[in-house]
Amino acid sequence: MKSNRLGSIDVLRAITMYLMVFVNDLPSVKGVPYWLEHAPAQADAMGFSDIIFPGFLFIVGLSIPFAIESRINRGQSQHEVFGHILLRSLALIVMGFFHVNLGNYSHSSILPLAVWEILITLAFFMVWLDYKGEKMKKWKNIIQVSGIVLLILMAVLYKGHSEHGIVWMTPQWWGILGLIGWAYLLCATIVLYVGEKITLAAGFLIFFIFFNSASMLGWVSSISAFTKWGILDFGNASNSTLVMAGVMVSIIYRKNVQDVGKVTGIFCGIAVLFFVFGFLTRHLWGISKIRATPSWTCITAGISLLSFVVLIYLVDRKNKGHWFSILKPAGTSTLTCYLLPYFHLAIFIYLLKLRLPLFFRTGGVGIIKSLAFALIIVLITGWLEKRKLRLKI
Between the CA atoms of 353, 359, 365 and 369, what dihedral angle is there, to the nearest 10 degrees? Predict the structure, then answer.
């Protein structure tokens, strides 16, 4: 069994994060083709932006078996690894919780939105910075505690607006990072205690697809309470389906890594099954990211899997990983890359009100601008990484 991290996974993660920054910047562009954007909630449709987040969930699943094996090989017990899973999940959920409340921040709050956004992002770096080197480790505890205190202070000062008036921070839909955190918590725990068994991974995957389907049909309204106990929130299992799909694919690849022909055939077959289920059941609930329908879940799982197959061939077999070297920091310092745009938005757009002329924010030129912006964020991430400034959870 191959235990070293696969280059194809890192490249897929880098490309996906680059595209996530790109699609997150697209709303700043006018006249974007509808196929590039997110489809409306009630539409039976899917735009390019709708396949990026599920791609990242799929990658989370691909990485889980490698990460767990690495920790066990370093001598950690199951309980120690589970503790790490809990802390990592908590970090993602906390960051997502703060992010989701940016959307209804009230102007009646003591701090302007831009300042609050800068301070919570700064606190994230303070708490979850990868402290390496003697000088960094010396100040680690002080900086981390200060970051936690800053987050608590930001929570205390927060005011949100709603149809019922001023409200405090609420989970809502947990934010992108929070959704990843919940799905990772569930699937990583399963892998840790069940082990790398293909049949069991496939069984959990089928169960999650069934739960996602039953939830959309209203069959499990009473059961769904068990996935949201005020503390735990695994939603309708759509996100868990995508992560578990990645887990199953990772296990299959790790067990058959020397037989690329066999692996390619298996993966293409699985992708076809995802597509067939997604399109054959489309009439029941439509394809919708916002509603997390089973059709959207399975079709995007199939797209993610085929993308992985392409990169297995290019990176793992043909050693063409250097083709994507410019994007590498997005795969090695992924969380840093995701958070940097929050500084840009708060400082340059909200505080300084600096915007490019409309010409550079319209149509094809605007799309190129967003692609360039995402690349700049990746390059800044790489610059910070070289100076040992990156987040690690």
Answer: -10
Give CA–CA dist 185/208, Å, rounded.
Answer: 14
- Single-letter amino acid, residue 359: F
d(CA 124, CA 319) in angstroms, rounded, equals 36
Q: Tell the residue number behind the tokens 């921070």, with chain if given.
A: 169
First-to-final CA distance of the chain = 26
For 219, the token pair is 């069959």
Number of H helices, E strands in the chain: 14, 2
Q: 99-114, pLDDT tens digit by residue?
A: 999 999 998 999 999 9
Which amino acid, 270? I
Distance of alpha carbon 72 from alpha carbon 78, whole angstroms? 8
The model's pLDDT over 335-377, given as tens digits with 9 standing for 90+, comes to 999 999 999 999 999 999 999 999 999 999 999 999 999 999 9
Nearest to 24 by CA among 14, 37, 41, 42: 37
User: Structure pTM?
Assistant: 0.94
What tokens appear for 25 in the block? Answer: 């910047």
Residue indicated by tokens 């003697």: 134
Name 230's Cβ contacts closer than 8 Å, sequence gap at least 6: none
* Structure-block tokens of residue 1: 């069994």
Asked if residues 188 and 68 have their Cβ atoms less than 8 Å apart, the reply is yes
Angle CA 343–336–98, to nearest 5: 60
| Residue closest to 297 by CA, chosen among 227, 221, 211, 184 | 211
CA dist list (Å): 44 to 47, 203, 239, 282: 10, 28, 19, 8
CB-CB neighbours of 223 under 10 Å = 11
Helix, strand or coil, per DSSP, at residue 233: strand
β strands within the chain, DSSP E = 160-162, 165-167
Scan for tokens 């489809």, then name that residue.
Answer: 39
Query: Is 1 a residue whose pLDDT tops 60?
Result: no
> What is the per-residue burial (b if ≥16 Cβ within 10 Å, else e) of 150-161?
bbeebeeebbbe
